[in-house]
Amino acid sequence: MMKRVSLCFLLLLMSCISAGAQQAQMQPLVFYYDYAVNPGKEEQFLDLVKTVGAPVRDKLMADGVVLAWGVESPLLRVPGDTTHSIWYAVADWAGVEKVDTALRTQISKLNDEAAKSGVGKKGTAPASSVAARLLDSVDISKTHDYLCRNLVFNASSNAPAGVLPYTRYFFFKVKPGKGGEFRKAWEKYNKPIIDKLLADGVILAYGLAIEEVRTDGDFTHFSWFSMKDLSSMDKFRSAFLADREHRSQEEQQSITDLFTSLTDPDASRSEVVRALIFHAAGMK
User: Fold this and answer.
1) Exposed, middle or buried, 215 (CB in 10 Å: 0-12/13-18/19+)?
2) How many CB atoms neighbour CB 254 within 10 A?
3) Are 90 and 96 in contact (CB under 8 A)?
4) How is domain 15-280 classified at the architecture level of CATH?
5) How far apart are CA 21 and CA 157, in angstroms?
6) How far apart are CA 69 and CA 198, in angstroms?
7) How distant, in Å, are the alpha carbons of 14, 85, 221 from that of 264?
8) How many Å apart are CA 75 and CA 82, to the nearest integer?
9) What ranges do the domains of the chain cover?
10) Are 190 and 259 in contact (CB under 8 A)?
11) Taking the alpha carbons of 99, 210, 173, 69 in that order, is the dihedral positive or negative?
12) pTM (global) more than 0.70
């Protein structure tokens, strides 16, 4: 995910947790599993998601551990990049442990059932283990896990039920020791525009995030926003252009110089993904 420009996401936490997030200044953790699915194996991969991980994450969501989870795929195909990402959001590290433990238990259970199926009816092929099914579906050498934390997070209280959002990611490589200044600049010049777009229903949620556990040197921070359709992207762009054009030439140049001084512009990337599966607490 992080070699796309452009999270997760991503992190897509919706209306069901927005009020609590704002009141408690929630900084949700989001775990991403990035996979390169083998050509022609997309449906098999999604079936694996639905039969192995989905029951676990849905149960933990009902228990209040998982805040939201989903599967997303890039809108733009890039050779060698991730094709699918599974993600889930939790409030803290304890939630990560509960998900990990429950998934390990589920996989062990399914593997035991697969092993027993080998002595089934004559002419019936034995079921494959979870690992065998995964190896058949993906190029395991390209798998990459990320654990990220949203430093800033906000979500709409009016997200439409059943939505499969698009998410835009922006990746930045902030210069050493400049993380605090970058966040302040982002909150001063970008956050007010995004908050207005959220209030107007143009976007559904947004965040500014980092890797909680650093595994990738291509970026240090990423921002993201989710939307119900791609036409919202035009409105997002127009809002930023209008804000900058409203300022004097001197102020525009000052903002540009500030962000340039804090980041490596050549390392900036972006990405758009579409949700294939999206579940959030309270959604039907």
Assistant:
1) exposed
2) 12
3) yes
4) 2-Layer Sandwich (3.30)
5) 11
6) 21
7) 32, 26, 12
8) 11
9) 15-280
10) no
11) positive
12) yes
By C-alpha distance, which of 213, 215, 217, 237 is closest to 225? 237
- pLDDT at site 128: 85
SS3 101: helix
With 0-12 / 13-18 / 19 or more C-beta atoms within 10 angstroms meaning exposed / middle / buried, residue 283 is: middle
Lookup: tokens for 101: 């433990």
Inter-residue contact 215 to 152 (CB < 8 Å): no
Tokens read off for 169:
């990611």
In this prediction, residue 127 carries a pLDDT of 66
Confirm if 263 and 182 have CB atoms less than 8 A apart: yes
Residues 38, 180 contacting (CB under 8 angstroms): no
- Which DSSP helix (H) or strand (E) runs through 215? none
Q: Which H or E run includes 10? A: none
**Single-letter residue type at 252:** Q
Where b means 16+ CB within 10 Å and e means fewer, 84-105 reads bbbbbbbbeeebbebbeebbee
CA distance 160 to 228: 8
- Give the phi and the psi of residue 18 in degrees, each rounded to 5: -65, -45
Closest CA to 18 of 147, 114, 159: 159
Contact 13, 205 (CB under 8 A): yes
Q: What is the pLDDT of residue 195?
A: 97
Amino acid (one-letter) located at 27: Q
DSSP letter at 30 equals E
Helix (H) or strand (E) holding 278: strand 269-280
Question: Residue 21 CA to chain centroid, in angstroms?
Answer: 17
Instruction: Chunk the chain into consecutive blocks of 10 residues (it has 284) and report each block's average pLDDT, rounded to whole numbers.
Output: 40 39 70 96 96 97 96 93 96 97 96 77 64 94 96 84 92 97 98 96 95 94 96 97 96 97 96 95 63
